[in-house]
Structure prediction request, 291 residues.
Amino acid sequence: MAPPAEERRPDPPDLRAALEPLVSAFAGRRLAVLTGAGISTDSGIPDYRSPGSAPRRPMTHQQFVASDRFRRHYWARNHLGWRHLQQAEPNAGHRALAAMERDGLLTGVITQNIDLLHVRAGSRTVVHLHGRYDRVLCLSCGLEISREEHDRVLVELNPHWRERFAELEDLEVAPDADVVLESTADFRIADCPRCGGILKPDVVFFGDNTPRERVEAAYAIADEAEGLLVAGSSLAVMGGLRFARRAAKAGRPVGIVNRGSTRGDDLATASVHAGTSQALPLLAEMLAAHR
Ligand SMILES: [Zn+2]
Prediction:
């Protein structure tokens, strides 16, 4: 399905001119950055909320916990797809933010992404609001296992499973029909090796709350800053929007770089409809010149 024309605007022909209002708002200020899926699409990680994406129903925490059929389904797909995240490379947008932090322009990055690409690009102060794909947690005793280690267990339980299926990317999609659940019904999952509890990726599911200490860490980054840059997020989920609201309420400028409109546009001092891989390196260069 083609995205609606008004939602999927091309990048402005003169990006430098388009960024000027952001630079004016941010010049001389240390910034907190909030990033979403849009910053990672150029690294080959699809953004399911971007304009034109097919509607999807993510698996909820409640479904995952209540039903071992859902857990088998989730882990089967995760088993197929997680290495795709492992193999993704940071892009120019991630690298620009890492460079801005090194130059003292940022208090840190708050990300809604679980892909760790900020860390791989060299960002040091990063809060992963929605968790990270590379860890698995026991819901009962809190034991933390690396996804790599868990992979060895799942491969042993399910020899040749990966070879039997094409790579799937939509890891969290709830099955719409029993026939879909049936396709993964023979996948064998592992429980906590310490207490036998349910193992879940360290990822915030639909219907989960973000752990309080993580929200506090994110607020600390945001409140230490003198402005908020939103990059590659449409602020569709409340978790992201509250940072824009908080900054605006405190009188700090909010600037947005995103393809398509966002729920925070009316809070923004300046909003630029552009791809982050193109806009962030240029923005970094322009802000550095204003120091
Ligand atoms: Zn346990």
Remarks:
- Residues 138, 140-141, 143, 192, 194-195, 197 surround zinc ion (CB under 6 Å).
- The two ends are 45 Å apart (CA to CA).
